[in-house]
């Protein structure tokens, strides 16, 4: 017997998981060209009319907060800092009641300049991507000589009070996997919270290879060689990162092991793409169009109903280990973290 999706209330799926954490991709464009994300020449970007405008984004977030029980909003990209209307969008979302917690995932370029304004607009905290501390290696990995800008962005975020400042690092075998201890030392010295992320099959080139992915076990072994790691007493809940206290704390380090230690059973995420599609999961191969309904005059109740229906069909997990696994057509750069 097929059970119908709920007609009111929060974003619940068939497994009883409730999505409270909304990830909003503000653009598919980026000012870096990370080798594990996109080709050097970039990608065929979404055309202007396909993109939600600032008012449409704020309206959909308002529906999510007012009608669907969303309490966390994370802005992602591509690179969200290059979205011209970012500050206005943050300010409008911060004015919503109940006020959601607002965070942003960024490559850090330009963050030193924008951090104070974003803080004033209502941004609470940031996650900054940083995979290496070596300038040459950074240029090879991102195809841009911008390490100094990222480090300035981190410092600017901390100075502006966008805390905790979290760092996301992806390690690749034979590329930067020797840097785990150095990255942790750097984070500890600056009071940043470091999380390593297992590389996921979401690259535009579809070149992901499990054998080059550095696993959580390997990362922890590398860290334990130089650091005293103890289980974190704080309840993990739906948080993607598994965390450890470093040297008895309070400093922590985390690992987001989507591939080898999936956490889908507690997932509380829902996603909105820059072109107005709902994705129930990072690895979803289906999407639900809200932009069309919105532009055709649908009211908020109708948009909420469509969103609930989209989430009701969420799969139990990403299925990466299934022989039938299909990598999503939409690349990570157009989904966001
Ligand atoms: S893979 Fe999908 S279901 Fe699993 S935690 Fe990520 S978004 Fe949630």
Describe this structure in words.
By secondary structure, the chain is an alpha/beta fold. It has a single domain (about 10-335), classed as Aldolase class I (TIM Barrel, Alpha-Beta Barrel). It is about 30% helix and about 15% strand. The strands form two sheets. Strands 9-10-11-8-7-6-5-4-3-12-13-14 form a twelve-stranded mixed sheet. Helix 1 (about 55-65) crosses helix 9 (about 300-310) and helix 2 packs parallel to helix 3. It starts with 10 loop residues before the first strand and ends in a 25-residue tail after the last helix. The mean pLDDT is about 95. The site of iron/sulfur cluster has 11 residues, from loops. Iron/sulfur cluster binds near residues 264 and 282.
Give a topology summary.
Blueprint: E1 11-12, E2 18-19, E3 21-25, H1 54-67, E4 72-76, H2 86-94, E5 101-106, H3 111-121, E6 125-129, H4 135-142, H5 147-160, E7 166-170, H6 180-190, E8 193-197, H7 216-224, E9 229-231, E10 242-246, E11 252-256, E12 269-272, E13 277-279, E14 288-289, H8 291-295, H9 300-312
Parallel strand pairs: 3-4, 3-12, 4-5, 5-6, 6-7, 7-8, 8-11
Antiparallel strand pairs: 1-2, 9-10, 10-11, 12-13, 13-14
The structure holds iron/sulfur cluster.
The site of iron/sulfur cluster has 11 residues, from loops.
